[in-house]
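ok posting inputs for the 2-phosphoglycolic acid job
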Amino acid sequence: VIDKRRPLVAGNWKMHKTVGEAVALADAVVAGVGQVQDVDVLLCPPFTALWAVSRRIEPSRIMLGGQNCAFEREGAYTGEVSPVMLKDVGCNFVILGHSERRRYFAETDQNVNRKARLAIECGLCPIICLGETLDQRNAKETFAVVGSQLEGCLQDLSDDQVRKVTIAYEPVWAIGTGQTATPETAQEVQRFIRRNVADRFGDEVASAMRILYGGSVKPANAASLFEQPDIDGGLIGGASLDASAFTAIVNAARC
Ligand code: PGA
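and the output
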């Protein structure tokens, strides 16, 4: 057993914020939690605002991530953004396989796996999102669904590659709905994820891996989620668009 992993709190801004709005939000987050040492803080603005936000957060400890990337480094892929380009504008992370990408843009585990391998080669740490729908939960398929997503997304990754991966457990029924998973429900699935990783990649890799919870995390429920043994922070959507709410969530993750 190792020390508790350093928490990661990531703001997924989704398709929100013009450049001017993004800079204002980034400045407010820097003012609030820019020098926090005991939590890693990550902002994931839309592509168009990455460079501007990168300049603003530079003097702080806050890190930058993309919300998606292409599965090739470069080429004739109209509309795509490569992990090389993300790295170039200052990203260290990239969110992959978010349920909105799976649902609206036909993203599959296979696709996520290919992107994850390339992202790691390019020096980015992928945050791979998994989670069951409400129908799947009601049909008692949660563990089967999450297990198979995990298997597909981490297919053929080496132990060293898996060390770069963060998993985000995001039950689809909890995203943007205000219906947060209870800490016990989230913990149960996240413990399952860690055991699954341990079976495939060994205890050492599994115990070092950060597993985030995402889905309607708010200042009021963050602490009770983050105190669970297998919840190492959060992927925050709606509440990350408000600097004071996001700051409160980051503070809830501090030891
Ligand atoms: P939410 O989104 O916090 O608005 O539920 C979380 C996510 O989609 O990452």
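notes: Residues 72 and 82 are 7 Å apart (CA to CA). Residues 12, 170, 175-176, 214-217, 235-239 surround 2-phosphoglycolic acid (CB under 6 Å).
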